[in-house]
Amino acid sequence: MNTSKMWTKFFIVFRHPVLIFITEKHGNYFAYVQMFNSRVLSKYTILFGQNENSYIESFTASVDRKFISLMSLSSDGCIYETLVPIRPTDPEKNQSLVRSLLFKAVVSGNTRHGTALTVLDQDHVAVLGSPLAASKECLSVWNIKFQTLQTSKELPQGTSGQLWYYGENVFMLHGRSLTVIPYKCEVSSLAGALGKLKHSQDPGTHVVPHFVNWEAPQECGLGAQNSEQSRRILRRRKMEMSLQPEVPPSKQLLSAIMKDSEKHIEVELRKFLAVKQTPDFHTVIGDTVTGLLERCKAEPSFYPRNCLMQLTQTHVLSYSLCPDLMEIALQKKDVQLLQLCLRHFPDIPELVTCACLKIFLSIADDSLEETDVNMESVFDCSNSVHDEKMEEQTEILQNGFNPEEDKCNKCDQELNEKPQAKTKETTSCPVIPKRAALLNAILHSAYSETFLLPHLKDIPAQHITLFLKYLYFLYLKCSENATLTLPGIHPPTLNQIMDWICLLLDANFTVVVMMPEAKRLLINLYKLVKSQISVYSELNKIEVSFRELQKLNQEKNNRGLYSIEVLELF
Known about the structure:
Layout: E1 5-13, E2 16-25, E3 28-35, E4 40-47, E5 56-63, E6 67-74, E7 79-85, E8 95-98, E9 100-103, E10 116-119, E11 124-129, E12 138-143, E13 148-154, E14 159-166, E15 169-174, E16 177-182, H1 190-193, H2 217-220, H3 228-242, H4 249-256, H5 262-274, H6 281-298, H7 305-312, H8 323-332, H9 335-344, H10 350-362, H11 365-369, H12 387-392, H13 394-397, H14 409-416, H15 419-427, H16 433-444, H17 449-456, H18 461-479, H19 494-512, H20 519-557
Parallel strand pairs: 4-8
Antiparallel strand pairs: 1-2, 2-3, 3-4, 5-6, 6-7, 7-9, 10-11, 11-12, 12-13, 14-15, 15-16
Helix pairs in contact: 4-5, 7-9, 9-16, 10-16, 17-19, 18-19
């Protein structure tokens, strides 16, 4: 048989030997299963998908009671699985097997050599290859069940694409030496796949080195090798270990968070974030945050806020992954970190959002002035506006509504009593710019009205009134432009402003209406709503007119396929 490639694997199934070997000819792959107890040889053709133009680079297999799970690593960087029956229905006939996608893009599709695949257990596989097109070769362990990366090790000296696993040890050729890496697969669980499983190590145990000490066989269970050749091997191994690269930044970071100072942890974190992202980047970030938060709880004086802020800005974390992060920030009243969390976390519960709002409204102005807050959502709300100019913009501010035509005579009488107060209220922002930036973060946060309303009732009425005044000020600023938008890089939208006004009034109207200082605000909000109703009423009339014109145009076009029109040109 003239073939270009061949791969074999030997199993013991029901105490009987089974041999499977794969051959390749002209791009077609064939699997042969030899049962030695019955001397039956079964042949299968492995079929690829219609859109697959890749070729197979490495095979591995595992066996259960009914099937042989044949896994293949293709040139596109994906792992495929083919189930080969141990007892075929028709051994004499050439049967076809279809391979299915098991894991996508575990190595770079541009890799042409040095790739290999082996099964560790029923839920884990080890892959040898380059994860990215421009990166070095790595040994990676993947969880098939949860489709996650468990661990990886960079191999700077390169490999020859040969990989084995036996007795909880991974064997591979690294450079010119045989490297042995002890690795024991944990029980596959969601906590272990996400890196949240706590690892405990007995104080008396020690880490097994990556290179086997052939003159100390009692540690690895190997036979005694005391010859001159073994001593030469030992000397060469020691020299290679001295030439190994330094500990990766990820391991240095994870070891530093348990005992080092905040400054040292910050330095190690910067080192880790400065290097190119590795396949285990998300896992290391999650483990780092978990370790820092656990130490914060154990040591009240330990609070590495700079590290926590850098980790939040990696766009990897979420509230579900580290709920203790915002809990500790609320205890410390760290408004800068809370603002970052509100901006980057998409799954913050409504209870936590309201807790942030309480702090943003209750913290003193002096404390806010000393805090560094992101101000990109805040525009320059200057107070230097002339009364004459504001009077000219009254109709624009009211969004098309003329207060002289208002039928609420009592409201007009109340507003005309103190015109100076009205001018001041409409031209000045009721909060300082840094508090405005924090409140804008609340406006941008996601929420569900059903779950948010009960928690809004717990906010003091004075703070609710202050928030309503700020929202009313934003609405007036929106109305100054024909586009109904605020200036700035990431300002609140008109819909967000109106929604939060409605939410606050729905939750606290009974309390706010009893406050004398909120009377003028409620009157202004009433006029705001009435002007909105007036504008939307006119817009509805325009919409109906356009619909009627559209119907006339459609009727004109549907009169017939043949028509004569006379055009008079003057």
